[in-house]
Amino acid sequence: MTRGMKMGVSMKMRLGLSVSFLALLSACAVQPEPFTASDLAQQALDDRLALFKDTAPLAGPMTLDEAMARALAHNLDKRSKMMEEALALGQTEVDAFEMLPKLAANAGYTYRSEYYATRSRDLVTGITNPNINPTYSQDREVFTSDLTMSWNILDFGVSYYTAHQNANRALIAQERRRKAVHTLVQEVRTAFWRTAAYQTLKGDVDRTMQEAQAALERSRIVERENLRAPAEALRYQKSLLETLRQLTLLQQDLSTAPLELAALVNLPPSQDIRVVVPADLAVRIWDMPLERMEDLAFNNNPDLREQGYQTRIAVEETRKAILKLLPGVSLTAGPQYDSNSFLVDQQWFSAGAKLSWSLMNLVAAPTTLKLADTNEKVAEARRLALRMAVLAQVHVAERQFRNAVTQFRQSDALWSVDRRLAELSEARSASNAQGVLERVAAQASSITSQVRRFQGYAQMEQAYAKILSTLGEDPLPPESAGPQASPSGAPGAVLAAQQP
Question: Which helix (H) or strand (E) holds 136?
Answer without folding.
Answer: strand 135-136
